[in-house]
Design brief:
two-stranded parallel ribbon
Length: 156
């Protein structure tokens, strides 16, 4: 797990550089941090579903579909928290654009990770674990798997 933690920290640092000013706001609330972690875990699963679906024995697409179906209300509420953050910081129209850039940068980051050895196995492991969790446990897993946004200067 130590290797994953280091990798996830490096990924968060790259994310901050890719996302630009959208993540550079002075403070993230604890609910916004949790929302960002769920969103990034969802993006990991989505990219894994696309990149790993043709590997024999890997059920990443089925795992992603189960994840989204099972946790749809929780995922949706967490995305609403993120959208509200970007709207608050940038206004409604610009906030949506900033949110879109943020989610695109997450997808690009995870796609780059997809080229790493073991990515599909990690996604499969995460998917198997997610299948056994409730909302609270899924949120805790996201917090363990995904660090807080790298540009966080403070958390309210």
């Amino acid at each position: 797990m130590t290797g994953r933690t280091g990798t996830m920290g490096a990924i968060a640092a790259v994310l901050a550089l890719l996302a630009g000013p959208s993540l550079a706001a002075p403070c993230w609330s604890s609910s916004e941090v949790r929302a960002a972690q769920v969103r990034e875990m969802q993006t990991l699963m989505m990219v894994g579903a696309l990149q790993c679906r043709h590997i024999a024995g890997n059920d990443a697409l089925a795992s992603y579909n189960r994840f989204v179906t099972r946790f749809r209300p929780h995922i949706s509420s967490q995305n609403d928290v993120l959208k509200a953050r970007f709207a608050r910081l940038h206004g409604n129209g610009a906030g949506q654009n900033a949110y879109d850039r943020y989610t695109t940068s997450l997808a690009n980051l995870q796609a780059a990770r997809g080229a790493q050895t073991g990515f599909c196995e990690q996604v499969a492991d995460v998917g198997r674990t997610l299948a056994t969790l409730n909302d609270q446990d899924m949120q805790a897993m996201a917090a363990r798997l995904v660090p807080a946004p790298a540009s966080v200067e403070c958390i309210e």
